[in-house]
Amino acid sequence: MNQKKLLSLLQLSSPSLPIGAYTYSQGLESAIDRGTVKDEDTAREWIIDSLRIVSDFEAPILLRLMKAYEARDIATVINWGECFIAARDTSELRAETVQMGFSLGNLLTDLKLVDESLLNILTAQTDLSLPSAFACATVALSIPHEEALRGMLFSMIENQVLVCVKSVPLGQRAGQHLLFSLHSAIENAALQAESLGDEELTNWAPGLSLLSMQHEVQYSRIYRS
């Protein structure tokens, strides 16, 4: 990957990218509130479990969306985008992917990064999920799919570690140690996502769904999910 593509991937994968990722915890705030996550070890367990869920569903869908955008296959993009949104089984998780997808889609058009064919695919989707917008961005920026997948996984994990640093709380040093210790888990998640056939995809995570629903009525909240 050349330097220009690497810089594009780093920018696209940063939780600081102005699409709102830092405002979501993806159920982690509820787990901290209930004492499930209370230190570095339990944070690592939570994040590894989250990676397993992502590697079985969101990450494989991202791979399929990138291939579909590259082929300018609008029907397949719409199919997988709708599939992902339909699988968000709480209002917060659905709002999260739609809000960030909308923000990233607007960013791509404002910066004039997408050609007319990609723009037509973006605008054809009633609700734009984050995986769909991210896939479009990687194709527009000519980022290799394998690197884009790992960038997305690292971005998710970095955001989760930041939540732990702020809310458990963990110290900065513990946060860096935790992030370094998860590198192999990220690679394993990527390999898992790349190996799955369509019939093997699953978003089965009832515990996360319950935590997400509980977060909707949690008394004190910093994050939006």
State the gist of this model:
This protein has 225 residues and is mostly helical.
3D architecture notes:
The protein is mainly alpha-helical and 225 residues long. The chain is built from 12 helices and no strands. The chain has helices at 3-13, 28-33, 40-56, 58-70, 74-86, 91-110, 116-123, 130-140, 145-167, 172-181, 183-195, 206-215.
Throw out a few tags for this protein.
single chain; 225 residues; mainly alpha; Urease accessory protein UreF; 69% helix
Q: Any low-confidence stretches, pLDDT <50, length ≥5?
A: none
How many alpha or pi helices?
A: 12
- Beta-strand fraction estimate: under 5%
Instruction: Please count the beta strands (DSSP E, at least 2 residues each).
Output: 0
Mean pLDDT: 93
CATH topology description: Urease accessory protein UreF
Question: Secondary structure elements and their pairing?
Answer:
Elements lengths: L2 H11 L14 H6 L6 H17 L1 H13 L3 H13 L4 H20 L5 H8 L6 H11 L4 H23 L4 H10 L1 H13 L10 H10 L10
